[in-house]
Amino acid sequence: MQRDAAALDLFEPLIGKWFTQKFGCPTEIQKSSWREISCGKHILITAPTGSGKTLASLLWALNQLISGAWPPGATSILYVSPLKALNNDIRSNLLEPLAEINELYRAGGITIPDIQVFTRSGDTPQNERQRMLRHPPEILITTPENLNLMLSSKRARLVLTTIKCVILDEIHALASTKRGTHLITAVERLVPLAGEFQRIALSATVKPLKIIAAFIGGYRLEPGSDRYEARRISILQSPESKKIQIGVSFIENARQALEDKSWWPTLVKKFKEIINENHSTLLFTNSRRLCEKLTRLINEGEDRELAYSHHGSLSKEIRKVVEQRLKRGELAAIVATSSLELYNFLRCCYAYQKLP
């Protein structure tokens, strides 16, 4: 308990009080992360879903905004995630604690800065993008592609000149790809604009950690010299582990189904059994066309819609409704493409990936 109290003592008293009322004790990864982050260190956090990575990375930054250590009316926190669905989820997960913390301060007769959280992606209407340029949010959540677009715009670059902290989510999904190279190049392009800032990366368990850490840190030009030196990244690993049951199945009577020139009825029958046996089920497909086809076949002959589609061609509004209902545990099944592959499925009981 003393160690828990010591970790929360780093924060403003009412923020520590809010955390205790909401969650009780911080997790081990949260305690170790806050100690490093509060000292201004760059860190790589590796922990399973549900271990509190998001608050581990963001609570100190919120503390700085609320306490006035970082000025209001300027973008101090840049949060980059690989998927638009993740952006919306992170924003929702931030707005709730901000509202609750604000209520605690108001109850004590204390006014705190109005902290704005904005998501910028391909779904963001032009008028909202213009509003962001006129009134920069304290927290900006975006994708690697949109960060690069902002860096190519003279007006948008001005928003990024006040960055104090950059958080890179799901870095394990990007590090070995061209998107990852594109992302870290954009992060380095921020340095001449904003100066040195704190780097925080979040990841599922990934190896080799030292290479990922070096990728995140990059090199900085030593002041007063022409020599570059690698930034030091602290690696924090959660002691917690998550048990996942993985199985490989083969549909019964598949040979007969192939002889009948269609394996869809047999496959859909099996999927319906899985959906009815579980509270929530996620089915992944390899294309948008297949996603829509499978959703239609699952819902055929049913009194209610068992499955909903989720892919990049659907409107922003439809995708958002599906994501919100999934998070509340209201949907029996979702058929998705890679648009949901990194989403936080705390309420999902069963996930199935159809292999080619």
- Total helix count? 14
Main sheet summary? 7 strands, parallel
Radius of gyration: 22 Å
CATH topology of the largest domain: Rossmann fold
Helix-strand pattern: HHHEHEHEHEHHEHEHEEEHHEHEHEE
| First-last Cα distance | 51 Å
| Text of the CATH class of the largest domain | Alpha Beta
> How does the helix and strand content classify structurally?
alpha/beta
- Looking at the overall shape, the CATH architecture of the largest domain is 3-Layer(aba) Sandwich
The beta-strand count equals 13
Mean pLDDT equals 86
Helical residue percent? 40-55%
| Main sheet: strand order | 3-4-2-5-6-1-9
Q: How much of the sequence is in beta strands?
A: 15-25%
- Report the CATH superfamily of the largest domain: P-loop containing nucleotide triphosphate hydrolases
What count of domains describes the coordinates? Answer: 2
Give the quaternary arrangement of the chains.
single chain
Describe the protein in words.
By secondary structure, the chain is of the alpha/beta class. It folds into 2 domains: 2-237, Rossmann fold (3-Layer(aba) Sandwich); 254-353, Rossmann fold (3-Layer(aba) Sandwich), CATH 3.40.50.300. 45% of the residues lie in helices and 15% in strands. The chain is built from 14 helices and 13 strands. The protein has helices at 2-8, 13-23, 28-38, 53-67, 84-107, 126-134, 144-151, 154-159, 178-194, 209-217, 254-259, 264-277, 288-299, 316-327, and strands at residues 42-46, 77-80, 117-120, 139-142, 165-168, 198-203, 219-221, 228-230, 233-237, 281-284, 307-310, 333-336, 350-353. The protein has a 7-stranded parallel sheet with strand order 3-4-2-5-6-1-9, sandwiched between helices. Strands 11-12-10-13 form a 4-stranded parallel sheet, with helices on both faces. Strands 7-8 form a two-stranded antiparallel ribbon. A hairpin with a 6-residue loop joins strand 7 and strand 8 (228-230). The chain is globular. The model has no long low-confidence stretch (mean pLDDT 86).
